[in-house]
Specification:
The chain is of the alpha+beta class and 56 residues long. The protein contains two helices and four strands, in the order E-H-E-E-H-E.
């Protein structure tokens, strides 16, 4: 199951910088995870300072 980013995202970019498959990009002001590209490794959730990322 792919990870998702909720509204507590502060757009710091930490998650995008750590994603090993580049599945995270900045959308309309906030970051978004491409569910098709996400390998569910959890790296992004581990580096998110606000806890905005969880399994969807």
């Amino acid at each position: 199951m792919a990870y998702v980013i909720n509204d507590t995202c502060v757009s710091c970019g930490s998650c995008a910088g750590e994603c090993p498959v580049n599945a995270i990009s900045q959308g309309d002001g906030k970051y978004e995870i491409d569910a098709d590209a996400c390998i569910s490794c959890g790296t992004c959730a581990g580096v998110c300072p606000t806890g905005a990322i969880s399994e969807g």
